[in-house]
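Re: the 130-residue chain
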Amino acid sequence: MKRILLTAFIISASFCTAIAQDKSVAGSNVSVENETDKKAAQAQRVKEWQNMLVTELKLTDEQQKKIAELDQSVGERAKAIASTVSLTEEEKKEKSMSLRKERNTQFIALLTTEQEAKYKEIIDAKKKKY
């Protein structure tokens, strides 16, 4: 179960920026530049992760296109979840986790058997690192 959740979390990094919420508090001393820097750094890490996957898994142009479409769709759905005021924070977390699992399943379905094996190796190595 931990493996699935971690895998889903890592894959979801590619669309995490889409569901980031504005956490600024009225009267707080958090600067806009600081928040912008954090988002830019997160976007850079996501881009590096995506580039590494493209290289290591040797994704074809067609696979890259389908993954980009998948990420865009999931990102839009994640934004919708985050902006739904009728949901509690717990419900939003549950729906987001379910969406991440669905995205991971669809992502893996786009891979060949060899790519899937390599992907699992990458995830296992990342787990050991942390």
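Residues 32-57 form the longest helix (26 residues).
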